[in-house]
């Protein structure tokens, strides 16, 4: 079903739909894949995060959730508005640090989003 997480239930701190059932994808790969996906970039207003959907070469449906500058900046602004001491990123070394213009712009935008 479109836009519904349908991962098999894999126990992980009591969460039925978690990273225990999925895998991490590098941000550079996500940025390339989102444009050729079935759905393009979608936005979940509850989670305040983007995601996209695609089918692999075997016809299996996948849903990829990620952060982008918009979602990171919303989270950073929330932290600041509550007077909290900071924010942590899941895995900053998954950004694309290659020398390509698009990669440099995406990486810079992600780091800038942490400073509201």
Can you walk me through this structure?
There is one protein chain. This protein is of the alpha+beta class. It has one domain. It is 30% helix and 13% strand. The protein has 3 helices and 3 strands. It is globular and about 45 Å long. The model has no long low-confidence stretch (mean pLDDT 81).
Helix-strand pattern, N to C? HEEEHH
Strand order of the largest sheet: 1-2-3
Overall number of structural domains: 1
Count up the helices: 3
Strand tally, please?
3
Secondary structural class? alpha+beta
**Shape, principal axes of CA atoms:** globular
Strand content: 5-15%
The biggest beta sheet reads:
3 strands, antiparallel
Domain GH18: 1-116
GO molecular function: chitinase activity
InterPro entries: Chitinase_insertion_sf, GH, GH18_Domain-Containing, Glyco_hydro18_cat
Keywords: Glycosidase, Hydrolase
Chart the SSEs and their pairings.
Elements (H helix, E strand, L loop, with lengths): L26 H9 L6 E3 L4 E7 L5 E5 L3 H13 L19 H13 L3
Antiparallel strand pairs: 1-2, 2-3
Helix pairs in contact: 2-3
Summary tags:
116 residues; alpha+beta; 3 strands; 13% strand; globular
Summarize this structure briefly.
The chain has 116 residues and is α+β, with helices and mostly antiparallel strands. The protein contains 3 helices and 3 strands, in the order αβββαα. The longest helix is centred in the middle third of the chain and has 13 residues, at 69-81.
